[in-house]
């Protein structure tokens, strides 16, 4: 019985004696069948421009997951920008970094898989896309870029504190982009106070003003000057702000915005002038009544560089505030021709400031 079953199974997989199939004929049959299937797929794909039937299938070597995105390495494009004689090298806002510093950043961005080294700023991981977008000529800096740049400038002020004191520069700090926006939300509550006593020094505003969170500087004690930005959300432009707590003034830094954009932002800044004055009154222990508030004086800085391109607004504002905080009067090196080099320099400085020192030392060897 078992032998009979084996014979039946053999016949089911092997050709019978009457079936004389030539191997070459069998292969040609398979090829013909494959051509028929391909023709049916072409018919389903529809006619091409020249009227012939062809497949819309993408060549295998062009599939996205097989393509390695090639990015231009971050490096200077123009001749090096010379040293600024008025300041020391670690805080020079213009001098082009040495090439090894760019190469370390490029090396980190090329690391993948198990070789990848995490990069954190204030507990938040920074991806390589952060630097790619910052160094992209057609992208304006976003809020994250500006916040990280301000945090770096705060660190430099601490590290080079002796230089700032020796040059009689006022104690200052840079605040996150969101801060001035959040302060503005309180305008209506100050203008029309509720029966319950309102205070501006609550939540994240109070924590920052009292030095409980980054940059951990107490207003009127540790710092007298505040630097930040106001964002015009309709046009995606930034206006730099310098708040002099002792002189009761707010100075604006813009890079040639259309008048309509300035007017929208100016209305917001006028409200901010009232609120900053109210915050100062609270810090000094005075009772805040809307009728008794003397708004800070608002004025525009003069002789500022202008840009023709909206995507250069962010880097212009960051560099203008940096120069102002260093007491530099000349900002001639901030222009459309040097904008890309200033972006690359900022990428390199941020990486050097916050990357783990062991990674840095390993790349110097």
TrEMBL record:
Q: Where is the signal peptide?
A: none
Q: Does the keyword Ribosomal protein apply?
A: no
Q: Cite the SUPFAM superfamilies for this sequence.
A: Cysteine proteinases
Keywords of the record, alphabetical order, are: Hydrolase, Protease
GO process terms (BP):
proteolysis
Q: Which Pfam families match?
A: Peptidase_C48
Spell out the residue ranges making up region: Disordered: 1-20, 43-79
Family assignment? Belongs to the peptidase C48 family.
Q: What is this protein called?
A: Ubiquitin-like protease family profile domain-containing protein
Q: Which organism is it from?
A: Brassica campestris
């Amino acid at each position: 019985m078992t032998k009979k079953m084996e014979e039946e199974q053999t016949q089911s997989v092997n050709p019978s004696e009457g079936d004389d199939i030539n191997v070459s004929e069998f292969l040609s049959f398979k090829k013909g069948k494959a051509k028929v299937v391909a023709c049916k797929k072409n018919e389903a794909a529809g006619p091409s421009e020249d009227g012939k039937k062809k497949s819309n299938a993408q060549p295998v070597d062009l599939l996205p997951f097989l393509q390695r995105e090639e990015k231009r390495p971050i490096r200077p494009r123009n001749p090096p920008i010379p040293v600024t004689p008025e300041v020391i090298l670690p805080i020079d806002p213009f001098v082009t970094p040495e090439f090894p510093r760019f190469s370390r950043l490029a090396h980190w961005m090329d690391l993948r898989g198990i070789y990848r080294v995490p990069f954190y700023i204030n507990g938040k991981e920074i991806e390589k896309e952060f630097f790619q977008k910052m160094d992209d000529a057609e992208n304006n800096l976003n809020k994250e870029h500006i916040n990280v740049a301000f945090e770096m400038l705060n660190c430099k002020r601490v590290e080079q504190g002796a230089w700032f004191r020796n040059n009689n520069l006022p104690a200052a700090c840079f605040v996150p982009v969101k801060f001035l926006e959040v302060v503005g939300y309180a305008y209506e509550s100050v203008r029309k106070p509720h029966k319950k006593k309102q205070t501006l020094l609550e939540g994240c505003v109070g924590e920052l003003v009292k030095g409980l969170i980054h940059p951990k500087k107490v207003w009127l004690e540790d710092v007298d000057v505040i630097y930040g930005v106001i964002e015009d959300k309709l046009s995606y432009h930034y206006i730099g702000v310098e708040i002099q707590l002792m002189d009761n003034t707010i100075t604006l830094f813009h890079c040639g915005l259309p008048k309509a954009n300035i007017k929208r932002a100016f209305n917001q800044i006028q409200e901010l002038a009232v609120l900053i004055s109210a915050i100062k009154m609270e810090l000094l222990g005075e009772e805040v009544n809307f009728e008794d508030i003397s708004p800070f004086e608002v004025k525009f800085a003069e002789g500022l560089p202008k840009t023709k391109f909206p995507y250069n607004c962010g880097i212009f504002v960051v560099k203008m505030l940096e120069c102002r905080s260093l007491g530099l009067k000349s900002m001639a090196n901030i222009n459309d021709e040097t904008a890309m080099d200033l972006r690359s320099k900022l990428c390199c400085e941020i990486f050097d400031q916050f990357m783990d020192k062991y990674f840095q030392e390993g790349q110097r060897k």
